[in-house]
# Entry
Amino acid sequence: MSNTGAMSNTGVMSNTGATSETAILKALGLKKNYGDLPVVKGVSLDLQPGEFVSLVGRSGSGKTTLLALLSGLERVDAGQVLLDGVDITTASEDALALLRRRSVGFIFQSFQLIPTLTAWENVALPLFPVKMPETERRERAEALLGQMGLGSRLEHLPGELSGGEKQRVAIARALVGRPKVIFADEPTGNLDVQTGQEIMDILRRLNTEDGIAILMVTHDLELSKSANRVLRMQDGEFLA
Amino acid sequence: MRLSYVFRELYLRRRRSLTAMLGLAVGIALLVVVNALSAAFGEAARAPLAEIGADLSIQRNGDVPQELAGAVFPCSAVTLRGDEVERVRQVPGITGVATGVLLWVFDADQFTIIMGLDPDNPLGPGRLRHFITQGRFLESGPEALLEVNYAQERHLTVGDNVSVAGKRYPVVGLVDASKAAKVAVAGVYLPLAEAQALALASPQVQSVSPFAPGDVNLLFLTADQRRVPGLAATLKGILGNKVSISTPESFLKQLGNLFALSDTFALAVSAIAIATAALLVLKTTAGNINERAREIGVLKCLGWTNADVIRQLLAETLIQCLLAGVLGLALAWLACLALSFLEVRIPIPWEMAPTPHFLPGGGEPVFKTLSLPMRLAPSLAAFALSLCVLIGGLTGGLLARRIARIKPSEVLRHE
# Structure
């Protein structure tokens, strides 16, 4: 693992023992300013396949911005990010969209479900632009919702679901494209403790059983302990 | 693009969707109704001539006879020479010619308007054959057809004789001219040759306007519709400036209606209505996009490309505009239905239905009254719907850049 060092040709060791060459996500010297305010100050890190990394820090420490930079949701001012072998700092918007469709899943604090679509349609949302039979879309969404214990909620709108159910729909949606890495931004932030634990159990299971790499942003130190490693952020930098 | 998503989004934002749809629907309805009105007045203006199977009618103005005795020509219809008629027949664009002779006959005990017509020509006054109420239509030879009111006033019927200018004609039929045009209405209809003979023998006619065998004083023309507006000038070139040429356009001017006066007016009202509606659609769609920045961010996070997002929103706009078009057409249809109950009174110039001013009822204005022929033409409906699709497409196209500028990180800003 590296959270401060430079990315070398020979690779940087992670705490899982893998080199940066096998990393699903590699970032080097990332910088981002909003106006004159530096928000991310030269951050580097690797995320190995099957690794679960927590990014913790206080509000305003730059962790959500870093997640946006690492996932290609925001452009970096300086530095480089390789995601699933693609340099996302130079990739076009369309290339980034296709990369996100193919390799990345997102889970948000506020679930970000489309209120007019049913549970299964929300799950299938990333597949709508993909040419495939409607039955296949639905089958994949149904299977994932079944795994999330929501087999009886397929036709329910988000407004008819509890917070925990919404987040499980969001997790199913993140999985429908069979991603290699999931970016989770405060996934339990809007849930009660027990429901939050259930969601964390699901994320751990996805990580350990399905080998999906997870980068989770949280301000909750307790939750961060679920991860293989924890990166602490303060004022746009990792703490040693 | 997913239709269930499209319709549910339109329903979710139904207030905004309805505002845009109603605005466009009213604009479309206005466009269709204004153009249908314009077309209806145009069609109404064609009615007086169309009912006698003509697109143009020609008369020549002359002098008032010195003495009103025997057969005379009304001053609005003096001689059109046979050779002039032949030259008119050769004018490119003229597809049919019918002639007539209109006479005022002042007998000692009565006044009669006589119309001489060619019984074998289906155009012009020959159309009266469709309005026979009793007996038969004219054939050749000395015989008369009476207008029903004229016959009632004089207690004449089929089989009787009518005396005109000292000559007796057997009555072979009665015709209800009120059901036909108000143009060149007469009391007694004779075969053209008989009327020409009366004119030839009349010193009053000859003194005002020399009349030779083969001459007439009324001309009814059918023409290629596209060339009708330009024919008047050509015909005046042949017949001189004293002729008055009646066309649908001249009747339209008689109507004096705003819609009848100007296609430009209809075009201007339509353009303003549609431009306003299009701006409303643009504004509401732009508002919709601003409101849905987070949702668009979510879609982009989930791997939707700009094109995917634009396709989805374009489908919403197109369907919204198409529904607005259908609603607008429904409104327009209702408006056309309501307006079709209106009656339009087309003034017939005295010159075209001349009666002596000194007689009871003479010189009074004559009107052709008909229901406003409002029609929702399929071509107009298709144009309106196409316009809706175009507005939807242009709106989507104009907003594509705005959609492209929305970053996927927008979703994190709303966290």
